[in-house]
Design goal:
Layout lengths: L10 H13 L7 H13 L4 E5 L2 H11 L7 E5 L5 H8 L3 E5 L9 H7 L4 E7 L8 H10 L3 E5 L7 E2 L2 E2 L6 E5 L12 E5 L2 H11 L22 H10 L3 H18 L22 E4 L3 H13 L5 E2 L16 E2 L4 H9 E4 L7 H16 L1
Length: 366
């Protein structure tokens, strides 16, 4: 089986995790958690970093920091993971969904046009390895007092608009799921330049413990803490971030060369703000029927694939919630109906990608 992703765990990673187990420091109180946070903050040129249990937890805490409520609107791309909207809905706010462009990201003009007097925040992800126009989005929002949450789950350490992600934002969030450029198994990070945001985030992610009377709670929070074992793995994995990305870009180059032609639409190698870091390798078929056939061919050869995001504005769970935005976000739905992404990851071998290419070539050209 060639999976759609395989993380790469190094001997140094195993040794550092083993050290935590041997020392008995396994909870979030371990010094390795703070060391991971500090190292991650330095990489992303941010003042504060808070390690949390997963990427969704980071988004939940970010939304909670803003005091979002029933009278507020939050602008979100419809082409992203449901984590970006779940806490917004739980707080009774109105998501405003925007369609994506051909690079899978929302454009700044769409965000600007969607802003109203009720807009409290904008959540902007970088999708599949290409950056969104975060600088122009942030500059516009800052002038109007709107908070930008930058979702960098798929873009750890990536350069967008000439800077490492996290610069053009009020809050940035990250995920370390096994399909990310580095992994902690599960795990995530929230970064900010604001001491107020950071202190509140620490409060919310740790059950809102009172500093003077620990077991007296005046607000409700979560236990979103990261364990020492996760932090040790993440700290060690940061040593290999560039190596992982370079390997994935090399795999993408194999795909770019081997899948040339008019049968599939391949991802752009760059857009106006970034080079493609190929978090995923998405391809589009000519129609839904062809997509189903390609999935079947890959499956018959024990090759994994993954569907594209199903648009948030069409999610069944949203039927009981209020939302607005583009009345006909057709591009996101079209991408879902015609697209999948192919095996790519730090642990995927070049020979495996060559096998995938050979199977697809045989299907289309034999």
């Amino acid at each position: 089986m060639i999976p759609v992703n395989r993380p790469l765990i190094h001997s140094a990673d195993i040794n550092l995790v083993s050290d935590q187990l041997s020392d008995g420091w396994v909870s979030s109180e371990s010094k390795i958690v703070r060391a991971f946070e500090d190292r991650f903050a330095a990489l992303h040129n941010t003042t504060y970093a808070l390690a949390v249990s997963n990427g969704t937890a980071a988004i939940d805490v970010a939304v909670a920091l803003l005091g979002i409520g029933t009278d507020d609107e939050v602008i979100i791309s419809t082409f992203t993971i449901i984590s970006c909207v779940s806490e917004v809905l739980k707080r009774g706010a109105t998501p405003v969904f925007l369609d994506c462009e051909s690079d899978f990201n929302v454009k700044a003009e769409s965000v600007i046009s969607a802003v109203t007097a009720k807009t409290k925040a904008v959540i902007i992800p970088h999708i599949y390895g290409l950056g969104s126009d975060i600088e122009n989005i942030y500059n516009f929002c800052k002038s109007r007092g709107i908070v930008v949450i930058e979702d960098n789950a798929q873009a750890i350490g990536q350069v967008v608009a000439g800077s490492v992600v996290g610069k053009f934002c009020d809050i940035s969030v990250y995920s370390f799921y096994p399909n990310k450029h580095i992994t902690t198994g599960e795990g995530g990070m929230l970064c900010t330049q604001s001491s107020d945001f950071y202190e509140r985030a620490v409060f919310f992610h740790n059950l809102c413990f009172n500093q003077t009377s620990r077991f007296v709670h005046e607000e409700l929070g979560w236990n979103y803490r990261m364990t020492a074992m996760q932090a040790a793995l993440g700290y060690s994995q940061l040593d290999k971030l560039n190596e992982h990305v370079e390997h994935k870009v090399g795999l993408a180059e194999l795909y770019n060369q081997g899948l040339q032609g008019d049968k599939l639409i391949l991802p752009d190698q760059k857009n106006q703000v970034s080079d493609n870091w190929y978090w995923a390798y998405p391809v589009l078929c000519k129609d839904a029927t062809e997509l189903a056939r390609l999935k079947e061919v890959l499956s018959n050869h024990n090759i994994g694939s993954r569907p594209m995001f199903y648009p948030l504005h069409l999610q069944p769970v949203l039927k009981s919630h209020n939302f607005s935005g583009d009345q006909n976000p057709s591009r996101a739905l079209d991408i879902y109906e015609r697209g999948l992404y192919l095996p790519i990851g730090a642990g995927i071998k070049r020979t495996e990608v060559s096998t995938v290419i050979s199977v697809i070539q045989d299907y289309y050209y034999d």
